[in-house]
Amino acid sequence: MHFCWQERNCLNTLKNKNRRLSIIKMKIDMKLQFHAFIKLSIFSLLLLCFTVDVFAQARQDTLRLFIIGNSFSQNASAFLPQLAKERGKTLIIGRAELGGHSLEQHWSYVEKAEANADDPAGKPYNGKSLKMLLGQGKWDIITIQQYSYLSADTSSYYPYANKLIAYVKALQPQVRIVIHQTWAYRTDAKKFGRTAEGKATISQKEMWQKSRAAYRLLAKRINARILPVGDAFEAVARDSKYGFKPDLSFNYNHPIAPNLPDQTHSINIGYYWNKEELVFDPNHANDAGKYLGGLIWYGILFNDSVKDIRFKPENVSEEFAQYLRQVAARTIGKNSR
């Protein structure tokens, strides 16, 4: 009897040990499965993020851009193809641009073309209407802007901007509208943009402030992104080292060809000789200004950094080009917040 009792105790002890071992083994298996699950989840998440990032990058590698504007949009986009090419991007540009043209004028051509498709007055873009140009393909982005002289006059934007946007959206429902914020005239300009009929701004700074406000109001109303070229021009104008300063020693009343005033670091055309006439253009961008505008357009439209861009126009110094890239990067950063 004593032997049987001991045997039973031994058997019970073995059973208890086996149960404990089974529980321990089960816990170990569960931990191993849990760690494997975590690793698989992390891997899947990383793979998803990588896939999304690659897809996003792929979308930005090709851009079909259509521009409705004038000489200022031509200036700002002049070097855009070179910037895109350097970064291996594919850029296709369509243009409906006419010098000195406002939103109202562009809309007036649409009305003429819609009233009579054969009316030449509705085909001002090298014999084509806006509808014909837009019908040449599927566009990703369409930019609009106001005529620079009217850019500080909020009332001049409406209702023409809204009508143009509704029109292009009806033709290209998928397109994104982006607003090109034009720049103020150089500080030594003889006149600046108007704020209302018969009332003009009195300085480069005021023209920038009022036009900036008008462009941002439009962007808010139509929920559109801005290409802040005007802000970048203003940043250069304010810079104590690189901002343009008029040459007070030049004889502007009796100039002698081919002498010119010192226009170091100007990003506007300024003074130049046309045969025997000294011409003054404080409005349009020179190559440095075109470069700055192009950097803003490229950085925002392609969602890519401009800090390490190597391309620059031949007549812009490396030092000034590097500074302009820094201005563009800061301006883009401020407007992406």
Helix/strand structural class? alpha/beta
Strand fraction equals 5-15%
Portion in helices? 40-55%
Largest sheet, strands/sense/barrel: 5 strands, parallel
Shape estimate: globular
**How many beta-strand runs?**
9
End-to-end separation:
88 Å
Mean pLDDT: 89
Which helices and strands occur, and which strands form pairs?
Layout: H1 2-60, E1 62-69, H2 71-76, H3 80-86, E2 90-97, H4 103-115, H5 130-134, E3 141-144, H6 160-171, E4 176-180, E5 194-196, E6 199-200, H7 204-222, E7 225-227, H8 229-238, E8 268-274, E9 277-285, H9 287-301, H10 318-335
Parallel strand pairs: 1-2, 1-3, 3-4, 4-7
Antiparallel strand pairs: 5-6, 8-9
Helix pairs in contact: 4-6, 8-10, 9-10
Task: Write a structural description.
The chain has 337 residues and is of the alpha/beta class. Helices cover 49% and strands 15% of the residues. The chain has ten helices and nine strands. The chain has helices at residues 2-60, 71-76, 80-86, 103-115, 130-134, 160-171, 204-222, 229-238, 287-301, 318-335; strands at residues 62-69, 90-97, 141-144, 176-180, 194-196, 199-200, 225-227, 268-274, 277-285. Strands 2-1-3-4-7 form a five-stranded parallel sheet, sandwiched between helices. A two-stranded antiparallel sheet has the order 5-6. It has a two-stranded antiparallel ribbon with strand order 8-9. The longest helix has 59 residues, at 2-60. The termini are far apart. Mean pLDDT is 89; it is low at 1-7 and 37-59.
